[in-house]
Every structure is written in structure tokens, then in C-alpha cells.
Amino acid sequence: CSRANLGTAAAASHLDDDRKGLFALPGLHEPSDFARLARRAVARSDDLMRGLVSSGPSGFPHRSATAVIDDLDEISDTLCAVVDVAELCRNVHPDLRWVRAAENAYVELQGYVQGLNSNRGLYLALVKAQERHGAELSPEAARVALTLRQDFERGGIHLGGDEHARLEKTAGDVIKLGMAFQQNLSDPKALGHMNVSWLRLGGVPAGLLSSTAEGGSRDTGFARVHLDQRTVSAVLRYADEPDTRRSIYLAAHSGPEANRAVLDGLLRARHESAKILGFESHAHFATSPLLAEHPDAPRALLERMASECRDRAGEEIEAMLRLAGRDGMDG
Fold it and tell me: Has domain 22-158 been given CATH number 3.40.390.10?
């Protein structure tokens, strides 16, 4: 869970009444549990949010600054306990039922977080805690408060109505397009296949491949090589011919054609969000709170590292080429 906008403390589950489940998240034992855990996280966060917002100008003096920071941090912990697991599950779980359930929970909670990040009541409670009672905060709590405030403002809390509405829409588009991009990378239909002559597939187990030529034999027909990770890994491991391995590798890493439009949309949405917030580009927005501070800094670091490692890397490449040539001669 990106703590940007809601704190930096370690995620802590508030579901201790349940047994630990998948990825050690209490209560997560089957795909349908994601929806229940998401609802429970939202309900707990709503309770905390109402307490903060209702403190308002008249009620705030009765709340300590530390209590305000603690409640904001608990909201972050409560949501991230589920969001972090949903993010992990949707990327690594082999069962599509789990993946879809995790994606649904992830989208729901990210949308909820976007709403919190634009909640002026929460923002004002934080500002008042800093400005009126900041002296009572420990250095650690003061740092958390500063980070929270900066992240709220990076989320556009200071924007007017029309600009804020535009930002919310583009932020939602970024999440949806990012999800679509990842889905296409695991969708067999989107990944597609490559037709390769059987003659070029020596060494590859036949069970991994299917014939595409009617009546075609292994001598005259073609095999359909699906570009999913399992099949590609097997071909790269077993295929005797280097050219076959190279062709399959390039095809598999060219990306699904469907992602071309998705990526274009994602880049536009990110750029628009950054411009609304007053940044030159998404790269400037992304690096501004980091040690790098500017997108040129990572490039300069990588170029310096490349320069320093070039000689050693060249030696290793030459060694690998010699090994590849020797293996080819050994046939």
C-alpha cells in the first residue's frame, strides 16, 4: 500500500480475532474473504474518520495532537493491511479466482483511499494539530505529521472544485489502466502465440506444443508456441537452436499488443495528473518527495554506475559469449 497520503508506520492488522490466513493476513482463507475484509477495513476507517472530522473547529481542543496523528496512522494501518496483501496476491497467486478477488478488493480500497486523500475534514484536523498543538508532538510524530500533510497536498487537497474533480478522475484512470496493463500480461488471449516450424524446436517436449497445420507432421508442420511464462520458459530451456530461443524471447518480451493502447492511456493520465498538481511531468511529481528530488538525478546515477561497471560487464559478456559458442560446438 502506498503510504503516500496516509502515513509511514508499518501496516498492522486490526483483525486479530481471526486466524491468520493467506500471506499471514487474519481472516483470509478463501477468495470471498477479500470482500469481507475490505468492507471491515472501510468500516473501521469510517469510524476513525468520523471522530477526526467531527472534532472540527469547536471540538478540536478536546483532542490532543498526538491522538489526531495516531488516528490518521491507524486509518493507514487498517487499510494497508488489506491493500498490501491484495496487491501481492493479484500479482503472484496462480489461481485466477484469488487474483480476481484480490483485484476487486484492491480497486475498491484504492478508490476509498482516494476519497480519504481528498477529505478536507481530515486535512484540516491534521493542519490544526500541527499549528495549534505541534509543540506537544515527539520528533517522530512531528515527522509523521509533516509527511502526512505533504502527501495530502500532493493529492490535490488544496485544489478548487473543478481541478479537484479532474484530478480524482485521472487518478481513478491511472489505477484502472495500471490494472488492465497487468491483466494483459497474464491473459493467454492477450499474450497470443507464435507459429514455429517443428524443425526448429528440437529438444522441446512435444507435450508443451500444439500443431497448427491440418494433417501437418513434425517434419512439415508448424507448432503453436503460446507466449505464456510457462511455455516460454520451457522453450528457452530446452530448444536446441539459439535462433529459436532468440525469436521466442523477443516475441514474449515485446508485450501484448493490447497493452499499447493501455500504456498510451496510462501515460496521458499520469501526465495530466502531474500537470494539474503543478508539476512538469509525472517523473517530476514522482521524484519530488524523494532523495533524488528531480528526474535527472536517477539518470545521472545510472550513467555513472554504467561507466564504472562497463569494463567488468564487458569481460562477463565476453565470457558468456565464449560459453555460448562452446555449447553450440558441443551440439
Answer: no
